[in-house]
UniProtKB/TrEMBL annotation, chain A:
Gene3D superfamilies: P-loop containing nucleotide triphosphate hydrolases (3.40.50.300). Residues 7-241 form the ABC transporter domain. It comes from the Bacteria. It is found in: Cell membrane. This is ABC-type polar-amino-acid transporter. CDD domains: ABC_HisP_GlnQ. Its main location: membrane. Pfam families: ABC_tran. Keywords: Amino-acid transport, ATP-binding, Cell membrane, Membrane, Nucleotide-binding, Transport. Signal peptide: none annotated. Belongs to the ABC transporter superfamily. It catalyses: a polar amino acid(out) + ATP + H2O = a polar amino acid(in) + ADP + phosphate + H(+).
Automatic annotation (TrEMBL), chain B:
GO terms for molecular function: transmembrane transporter activity. Pfam families: BPD_transp_1. GO terms for biological process: amino acid transport. The chain crosses the membrane at residues 21-41, 53-74, 81-99, 181-205. Residues 15-203 form the ABC transmembrane type-1 domain. CDD domains: TM_PBP2. Belongs to the binding-protein-dependent transport system permease family. HisMQ subfamily. The keyword Cytoplasm does not apply. GO terms for cellular component: ATP-binding cassette (ABC) transporter complex. This is Amino acid ABC transporter membrane protein 1, PAAT family.
Length: 247, 214
């Protein structure tokens, strides 16, 4: 595939005190590409995802979005974050605002849209994730799966160039996982650039262009899903897959 | 009973003096406390230091000493204002340190994910704080802010020692006029109760309206 890099990480290292959580990470995500990051817990995959919009700072290396290096804390960083949406494991919907206001808030504050324009866009997006009827409820009144779909709509409202998913289905009941994955599948088909940290191997197989396997802070394998799942190269990946695919 | 009826205007003046001191100082304390709490959680190091020093100095100074410092100190630097304004300054700044810490603990009750979500959408620190974090922090700080303002109302009595008209100070005049000291103080206490119970009632209503639903 022709590589038009949107997200680039070069020699990224991060420490939590003594703990070396990201080791010499090199990763390029092309425009329109869906990259799924998998690996055992504690392997650094969530941290990797969070460094891309600088929710986690790094000790060394370079990260660039659309050719521009990540700015330091301040206005520039805020602008960049508006271009890179993020969906969290624990949804993090604004608990004191309605569903509609959750999706509209950043449009008003960051994109400076008019209220009716923002609300119209929000309703469109809620329609797209199948939650138009829930617009006036508070987040706590929705199920986990519904909350996560609202969170996706909220991220989409900024018209981001890329979306980061940090274990979006890990906090959900099994029945609700599919409704979220379906929305993500649709986004992938629509050509959204996505970095997805997940344990959903089915999603990785069907929606990913590439699978990145991480262990102990390193990228161990970076291949197509077909190649990775049928013939993993490293022992670490073989071991991981044998454990999770057994059941 | 005679003490009250015969000196109603004196009591009234004192009562209004205390109310005024309480209201103005509360406004100043809430405003400054809000600013200092924002400083203490700001991403800028120098602001955090400023907030911390503000709280450390004001919270650890006896209020009477602070009154002396403001009323006797500031005029030396050429700042001459009515004693009442000085009293509001001293009370307001002192209480702002406590309000700051109450607000900060409220901010800490808001899950970090809320702030992260706001920042990940491109909101600035100020927008995140004012539209996402503080409105949620506000719900949990209503009761302790109430307590702090009640303490402020009672602390305002110190201003009487610096010849600012307020409720407690009325006892001196009444004492000189030969009234029973016990009844004088009973009516002063009633005056304070009216103010503090009003503050409690106000905060009870606010808590019912906006407090965290359980």
């Amino acid at each position: 595939m022709a590589v038009d890099p949107l997200i680039e990480l070069r020699d990224v290292n991060k420490y939590y005190g003594q703990l070396h959580v990201l080791r010499d990470i090199n990763l390029t995500v092309g425009r329109g590409e869906v990259v799924v990051v998998i690996g055992p817990s504690g392997s650094g995959k969530s941290t990797l995802c969070r460094t891309i919009n600088r929710l986690e700072t790094i000790e060394s290396g370079r990260i660039a979005i659309d050719g521009r290096p990540l700015p330091e804390e301040g206005k520039g960083l805020a602008q960049l974050r508006a271009e890179v949406g993020m969906v969290f494991q624990s949804f993090n919907l604004f608990a004191h605002r309605t569903v509609l206001a959750n999706v509209s808030l950043a449009q008003l504050k960051v994109r400076k849209r008019k209220k009716d324009e923002a609300d119209r866009r929000s309703r469109e997006l809620l329609e797209r994730v199948g939650l138009a009827s829930q617009a006036d409820k508070l987040p706590a009144q929705l199920s986990g799966g519904q909350q996560q779909r609202v969170a996706i709509a909220r991220a989409l409202a900024m018209d981001p160039k890329a979306l980061l998913f940090d274990e979006p289905t890990s906090a959900l009941d099994p029945e609700m996982i599919n409704e979220v994955l379906e929305v993500m599948q649709q986004l992938a088909r629509d050509g959204m650039t996505m970095v997805v940290v997940t344990h959903e191997m089915g999603f990785a197989r069907s929606a990913a262009n590439r699978v990145v396997f991480m262990a102990d802070g390193r990228i161990v394998e970076d291949r197509t899903p077909e190649a990775f799942f049928t013939a993993p190269e490293s022992d670490r990946a073989k071991d991981f897959l044998s454990k999770i695919l057994k059941h | 009973m005679d003490v009250l009826t015969e000196n109603f205007s004196l009591y009234g003046k004192g009562f209004l003096g205390t109310v005024e001191l309480t209201v103005y100082s509360s406004i100043l304390a809430l405003l400054l406390g809000f600013i200092m709490a924002s400083f203490r959680v700001a991403p800028v190091g120098s602001l955090r230091v400023l907030g911390t020093v503000w709280v450390m100095v004001l919270r650890n100074t006896p209020l009477t000493l602070l009154f002396f410092a403001v009323l006797l100190g500031l005029p030396r630097f050429g700042l001459v204002l009515p004693f009442k304004v000085f009293a509001v300054l001293a009370l307001g700044c002192y209480t702002s340190a406590f309000i700051c810490e109450v607000l900060r603990s409220g901010i800490n009750t808001v899950p970090t994910g809320q702030g992260e979500a706001a920042r990940s959408l491109g909101m600035t620190f100020g927008q995140t704080l004012s539209t996402v974090v503080l409105p949620q922090a506000f719900r949990s700080v209503i009761p302790p802010v109430g307590s702090t303002l009640i303490a402020l109302a009672k602390n305002s009595a110190i201003a009487g020692a610096f010849s600012v008209t307020e409720l407690l100070g009325t006892y001196k005049t009444l004492n000189e006029l030969g009234y029973s000291i016990i009844w004088t103080f009973v009516w002063i206490a009633v005056g304070y109760l009216i103010i503090t119970l009003s503050i409690s009632a106000l905060f009870n209503v606010m808590e019912k309206r906006w407090g965290v639903a359980r």
